[in-house]
Amino acid sequence: MHRCLLFLLGLIFALRVPAQPIREYLDLQMHPTMHQAYRFFGRGLEYFPENNPPKLSHRHLLNNVNHANFWDHNPGARIIVHGSILPEVLVARKRARARILAQIAYVDDFVAAHADRFAVARSPEEVRQLVHTTDKTIVIHSIEGAKRLLDGPEDARFWAGQGIAFMTLIHLMDDEFGGAAILPDWTTRLINWKGTLRQKLGRKPPRGLTDKGRQAIQWLTDAGIMTDITHMSDSSRADALTYMEAHGIPPLATHDMFKPLHNHPRGISKADIVRIYRLGGMVALPVSGASCRAHHPEEAYAAQLAALARHCPGSIDSYKFSYRVLQEFVEGEVVDHLLAGESAFLELGEAEKVDFAIGFQSDFNGWLDHHRPRYGAEGCWEKVPGTSYEAVELVGMPHPGTLESHWKLLEKEGVDLQPILRASEKFLQMWEHFRARRQ
């Protein structure tokens, strides 16, 4: 009798769980299996001895920083999206699928070996249950780059069966789906040399989304998988949003930037951000100050930057400024556009505010450095004796373990983090929407 009562109470609780909103730090992508795509990234998601931690710096472009110690019960990233990834030059479809499956299996095996601390969630319902009933770090699967992985609706259904929540359709190179964004630096110009050459010659219009790219968005939608429009060229993004508007598909942008402040192809314009939220989608910023450093900003934002009393470019300050600018736009102009000026953001209920959440993505092991420190030899200022500092101010962001310090410092400095905490609920609602549309 006692056991039956406990079972019934547990069942009632489980049925009520989905109604409870999630407020967790959701990192929209890290790459713990990058060593399987590029061997020089080390040994992957493993524990190091606590008495012998690796020597890591915020300059870790080609080094593994995704050690299990930094994922284990990390308050700065309770939910982590694992992004499987392929070498850009891989061409064989069969081999591409095998490589992604191997990465998914690697993470699954690690989680199974540490089931008291980690769990993999293959549905939004599983995420909700795990958040409310455990203290485990929750891992969700995604794929960054669909090249050679998506050739028809049956492929999309296959990846849905693996628990893939979203797929970044285009990555670093122009492919069968469309044109990729080419950043001003030499790295993406070299990787996407064909796109760079086409751009330099100017003989063809900018490459947008192909017919197959449009089909792929539909294949993914019909399978219950979100399409991440990150890394698309301006033309591809515009084409994707036009298609998504025509078919009522919510877009997800996991780590592009805000074009008025970051004026390059990875920046999303004000108009396109309005389009994304109007469709029930969400945008997220890369969390790295190095990525969020302003690039030829509009005059008004350049003036705001110049007027700041203290600002260390490339440090947490760059992320802080970018996030505040984006938040002001989303909670101001986007809300006005969508509600036709009938209600201000502060007048909305908590459930309505979720629709205007802003996510973040750290991209650890994703071919980039992170925050530099504010203070010390690699920072902008000397330390003041007797002053207490957060770790992120002194070492920058060398690994995922510093995410907690990152959020703590921003909170101390009066930054409103609620839009970021709401992003976990927004993400789950989007995922639920797509799964409900499965055909």
Topology:
Layout: H1 2-16, E1 26-30, H2 34-37, H3 68-71, E2 79-85, H4 93-113, E3 118-120, H5 124-133, E4 137-144, H6 153-161, E5 164-168, H7 186-191, H8 193-201, H9 211-223, E6 226-228, H10 234-247, E7 252-253, E8 257-258, E9 267-268, H11 270-278, E10 282-286, H12 299-307, H13 316-339, H14 350-353, E11 358-361, H15 391-395, H16 403-412, H17 418-436
Parallel strand pairs: 1-2, 2-4, 3-4, 4-5, 5-6, 7-10, 8-9, 10-11
Helix pairs in contact: 5-17, 6-9, 11-13
Structure notes:
By secondary structure, the protein is α/β, with parallel strands linked by helices. It is 42% helix and 10% strand. The chain has 17 helices and eleven strands. Strands 1, 2, 3, 4, 5 and 6 form a six-stranded parallel beta sheet that branches. Strand 3, helix 5 and strand 4 (137-144) form a beta-alpha-beta unit. Helix 5 (124-133) packs across helix 17 (418-436). It is globular and about 60 Å long. The two termini are 43 Å apart. Mean pLDDT is 91; it is low at 1-18.
Helix percentage range: 40-55%
Mean model confidence by pLDDT: 91
Q: Sheet with the most strands?
A: 6 strands, parallel
Helix-strand pattern: HEHHEHEHEHEHHHEHEEEHEHHHEHHH
What is the helix tally? 17
Structural class: alpha/beta
